[in-house]
Amino acid sequence: xxxxxxxxxxLEPLTAEHAETMDAVARDQDVARFTRVPDPVPEGFGERWxxxxxxxxxxxxxxxxxxxxxxxxxxxxFIGLVKLDLETQEAEAGYIVAxxxxxxxxxxxxxxxxxxxxxxxxPLERIELFIDVENPxxxxxxxxxxxxxxxxxxGTYLKPGLRSDTIVYSMLRREHAGT
Length: 179
Fold this sequence. Notes:
This protein has helices spanning 19-26, 29-34, 45-59, 106-121, 136-144, 173-177; strands spanning 4-6, 9-13, 63-69, 75-85, 90-97, 126-132, 148-159, 162-172.
C-alpha cells in the first residue's frame, strides 16, 4: 500500500515510526472525549495502536494511515478504516487531527482521500462514520465529503464510563461514483 496525497498532505500506512507521534495525538483532550481511545491513555499506547493497524492491514480487518505534512514530514493526525468487513462489504472510518493542525481542512482532505482509496481498492459498498452529537466540527467534515446523515443512535457505548448520542453518516459506492 503506497501513500496517498492531496496537496500539502499525504496518507501513509501506519508503521512503527509513527508510534511515538500517535501516542502524543491520543493524549489530546478532544481525542479522549470523542473517540474510543482509552482515557487515560496507557503507557505505550501508540506502539500498540500501530501494531493493531499493521495486523489489521495484514488480516484485512482495518487500514490505518498517518496524516502527514508533505513538506515537513510531521504527523498531523490519523485516519483509517477502523472496522473493515470485506464479507459484508462495509467499513467504519474514523479520523483524528492533532490540535495544532485543526481548522485547516486536513480532516476533510484526508477523508476524501481515504474514501476514494477505499472504494477504488476494496470491494466496499458502504462506509460509515459515527460522530458524537457534541462534535460539530466532525459533522462538518462528513458533510463536506458528501456523506449522508442517517440519524442518531441514542446512548451508545463509547468506552468505559462514557455513553453518548452518536450521529451516523454513510456513503455508498454508487454515491461516491457520482461525485
